[in-house]
Amino acid sequence: MSRIQIYDTTLRDGSQGEGVNFSLQDKLMITAKLDELGFDLIEGGFAQANQKDAEYFQHVQDMDLKHAQITAFGMTRKKEIAAEDDLGLIALRDAKTPVCTVVGKTWDLHVTEILRVDEAENLAMIRDSVAYLVAEGRRVIYDAEHYFDGYRHNPEFALKTIQAASEAGAELVCLCDTNGGTLPEGIAAAVKAAKGAIKAPLGIHCHNDSDVAVANTIRAIDEGAVQVQGTINGIGERCGNADLVSAIANLVLKKNYQALHEGSVEHLTELSRYVYELANMNFRSNQAFVGSSAFAHKGGMHVHAVNRLASSYEHITPEVVGNNRKILVSELSGRSNIVAKTTKYNLNQDAELMKAILARVEELEYAGYQFEAAEASFDLLIKKVAKTYEPKFARLHYRVNVETDSAHDPQTEATVKLKVNGNTEHVVAEGDGPVNALDNALRKALIPAYPALETLQLVDYKVRVINSTGGTAAKVRVVIESKDNKEVWSTIGVSENIIEASWLALVDSVEYKLYKDDGEFEPAK
Ligand SMILES: CC(=O)SCCNC(=O)CCNC(=O)[C@H](O)C(C)(C)COP(=O)(O)OP(=O)(O)OC[C@H]1O[C@@H](n2cnc3c(N)ncnc32)[C@H](O)[C@@H]1OP(=O)(O)O
Ligand SMILES: CC(=O)C(=O)O
């Protein structure tokens, strides 16, 4: 089966996405990761744009890349300037990459209205720029900007522009759906026409403004394009680029093309998260193939079927792209969700117990709980319903005080009184805010009896108002994420009072940690 060249432009077009700004170090780290997985071409940046991109092209020369070729991106020469005097082309030459990618105009509207040159000058700009870089010993990829819009409005001129690039020595012409407005049938017709018009092989570069960038990419490949340009997670200008993660997974797993190194598809989830992390962006949980919900089963009927045959509700096996299956517990659960979630605890799938757990989940979710995001609280709930839960301490009372005046910032203090192993612990602690003070006081009271709580840390705190339009007072749902040196877990509390909701989530977090350290939540042997 034929091999598709994968051209990553995360570091150039991806950086054009709102809110994306990679540091030089990020760019070098992403380059190393892409090389490791077998990406063929990595567009490192816009050579003329800024100091960071220029430095990237210097530093990347010292990297020991095993497979990837680096390309520097720039545009055709400015109008009425000789190629050898054009600052953009000089920057491309000085980037010293083996490959240069030059973008040029294809749509007559852009030629007359944006560049404000005639068609002959635009063709000369393309020809001169490609020929100059080829003469400088560079391999040139020509990006035909707005090819699909150009082809729709003036096919004859659009084809002349790519002929100019091909004849001047471009080793590949990449057809760009720059505005992302084309649908798959438009892609197919225009790729066919390009294929018949030039010698150079074709690539495809789609934007996602119509939410079909990946579909368009696949369609172009089916029509004979041999290179896919895109970005990891689809980041990029406006609605982004074709997501290479989905494009590669579809091409390799569904259409039997070859891409990247053998086995790299299994690392797509890891790659996606790595790039989100460096881009300082949140993961998209519903992202196809690699999102944390991509294989999360929630509806009771689905879970029932998945327990019998996973492929009944999954288009691929999650592990094939390095992802995991998840079974969620919620008010939409049936007995099958509970059975799936509790198998690890060896409850012998006791039918009455499963029913009781499900009833309790439904009751609490009706009251505002949401166990999908709070699996540690769900684990404790099982123990409570199974009557194997024994509280590690009892609350006698707590109080939280916030004091401020015109001269002072707020000071927060919490007092907690607990019964722990028969002793009364009465402590006071300060904090940055009420929840922090409460957390500090709770742990201060418990650490003498349970020193392991020294390693417990609160890492995230989320609060959400629920039923705010109901006739009753609004409730709040607090979800806390905690960690120790081994694990991260989430707990939940719901109340009309935000401090009480936080207390409930904190108590679950502490109880979970103590039970976990006793080996309670280990999978049954
Ligand atoms: C479809 C794409 O994603 S293409 C990549 C887009 N990415 C970027 O623009 C990011 C990096 N860009 C930059 O750093 C700057 O825009 C630079 C350095 C390239 C140019 O900066 P400036 O010289 O200040 O020009 P500015 O950005 O205001 O305008 C673009 C200029 O390029 C010209 N231009 C645009 N496309 C082309 C082209 N394909 N060939 C030649 N000239 C072009 C425009 O006509 C305009 O020149 P003019 O002012 O003489 O009419
Ligand atoms: C080249 C490019 O990024 C585009 O036309 O969208």
Detailed description of the structure:
This protein has helices spanning 24-37, 51-59, 87-94, 108-115, 119-135, 147-153, 155-167, 184-197, 213-222, 244-254, 268-279, 300-308, 335-342, 351-366, 375-385, 434-446, 498-517; strands at residues 5-8, 41-46, 69-75, 99-105, 139-145, 172-177, 202-206, 227-230, 296-297, 326-327, 394-405, 408-420, 423-431, 457-466, 475-483, 488-495. It is an alpha/beta fold. The chain folds into 3 domains: 5-261, Aldolase class I (TIM Barrel, Alpha-Beta Barrel); 296-385, no CATH class; 394-517, Alpha-isopropylmalate synthase LeuA, regulatory domain (Double Stranded RNA Binding Domain, 2-Layer Sandwich), CATH 3.30.160.270. The longest helix is centred in the C-terminal third of the chain and has 20 residues, at 498-517. The model has no long low-confidence stretch (mean pLDDT 94). Bound molecules: acetyl coenzyme *A and pyruvic acid. Pyruvic acid is lined by residues 13, 103, 143, 145, 176, 178, 205, 207.
